[in-house]
Amino acid sequence: MSIVTIRNVEFLNNPARFLDPYHFRVTFECISALKDDLEWRLIYVSSPGNEELDQELDDCLVGPVPVGVNAFEFEGSPPSPSKIPPEDVLGVAALILTGSYNDQEFVRVGYYQNTEYDNEEMKATPPSRIQFESLVRDISAKPRVTRFQIKWCACLLF
Q1: For a tag site, which of 48, 56, 78, 155 has the least CB within 10 Å?
Q2: What is the pLDDT of residues 90-108, one digit of tens each?
Q3: What is the pTM of this model?
Q4: What does the DSSP assignment read for the chain?
Q5: 119 lies in which domain range?
Q6: Would residue 151 count as lying in a domain?
Q7: How many domains are contained in the chain?
């Protein structure tokens, strides 16, 4: 049984310019007070076949976590253009939000992100060199959520 359940992830700036920070609100429910903080990480996946190109955009600690419904706002940096292969910039990429407790990942929420130029002319005939300032991103509203069973309490039984 999970102590923490994600209720909602709301992107507060979607769609947005590709180079804008990600800004969203996470709402989750906690059924038992937690001694330690929850760690949240935001990861950009431009090349699914090459994990070395994944970029951790930001992370944050949330705590102490009381029983009940909790929420926090998270702002993550945009991906670094220099770390994305040019052939992987346009089109679909993945954005992943992970939640961990005591270095154990308990949830992974994945979104598809579509990146394209902001005008029809550049969409029809993309420039030979990527113009990052002319790109917009749109994050899918339907996430894929994966939950993992973890050990929530390091209690000793006598």
Answers
A1: 155
A2: 999 999 999 999 999 999 9
A3: 0.91
A4: --SEEEEEEEESS-SEETTSPEEEEEEEEESS-BSS-EEEEEEEES-TT-GGG-EEEEEEEE-SB-SEEEEEEEEEPPPPGGGS-GGGTSEEEEEEEEEEETTEEEEEEEEEEEEEESSHHHHHS--SS--GGGEEEEE-S--EEEE-------PPP-
A5: 4-146
A6: no
A7: 1
